[in-house]
Amino acid sequence: MSEPVSALNKAGFDGIAHVQEIGLQGMITLRGNLAAKDLKAAASAVAGVAMPGVNEANCEGERGLCWMSPDELLVLCPYDVVQANTAQLQQALTGTHALAVNVSDARAVFRVSGPVAREVMAKLCPVDLSPAAFSPGMFRRTRMAQVPAAFWMVDEQTFQIVCFRSVAQYVFDLLSVAAQPGSAVNLF
Amino acid sequence: MLTLQCPYCGVAADETELSAGGEAHLKRFGPGSSEEEFHDYLFTRENPRGVHFERWRHSHGCGKWFHAARDTQTLEVFGTYKAQTTEPPKDIRDAITAKRPGWTWRDVA
């Protein structure tokens, strides 16, 4: 079997914030009735965290659950167990109207970290990223310049961003430009 | 710039995060309808200066379709509501009446 590689092979950029493609991350799209007991139980069993509320992400290390839409969850897990976890989800949801698909290789994942990480993101997204409005634990799907993206905060100074793999270079370039040395706005 | 609150995920979404879906509450005329009905269904649209009802999709967010009631002249948004309805809900109509007494839109008032 061929060796899996991430979109940009862990490319990094240092400016007013550090931009890093974090490499391979297991991601499973889970669609179904998020209020259903068996779906909640199956998702929590695989991710090892509790169900997130609306617009929230529950993440611990490489594992987590993110609320994508009223009928969609993003299940995060280490890349090497993603196939096993997808099968486990499908097994647990047999007979229910639900769908679990391994989308790890269709996505790229970035981290933006540093004291002005909020600014770097705020330059690109039509989202209120002030500390009062967006904090760790929250999750947001939005637009970064011209492409769809989703992000959450790992801690007070770190964003984790998920985008489509086909636009990984574009997103990396966007983040690098937004993090150019000397471009701090000092808004937050 | 328009900011609409998505009734599904609650996000205050910027216009650029949304896709416009045209006039709301159209009744579909398909096979079996008269040519005139089909023509009107395809081509005839409201074009009001003032209160208007539109469909929007939170395309860069949760992906859901919803409805918005707004004023095309002032860009004021009266409210947004879920797509699972064939007419504007009463609370939205009341909110418009409070600000635009005597408004009408198609056969809604």
From TrEMBL, chain A:
Superkingdom of the organism of origin: Bacteria
Database matches in SUPFAM superfamilies: Folate-binding domain (SSF103025)
InterPro entries: SoxG, TrmE/GcvT-like
Protein name stated in the entry: Sarcosine oxidase subunit gamma
Naturally occurring in which organism (per UniProt): Sedimentitalea nanhaiensis
UniProtKB/TrEMBL annotation, chain B:
Protein name (Swiss-Prot/TrEMBL): Sarcosine oxidase subunit delta
GO BP terms: tetrahydrofolate metabolic process
InterPro entries (alphabetical): SoxD, SoxD_sf
GO molecular function terms attached to this record: sarcosine oxidase activity
Originating organism: Sedimentitalea nanhaiensis
Pfam families with a match to the protein in the record: SoxD
Residues of the signal peptide: none
Membrane-traversing stretches: none
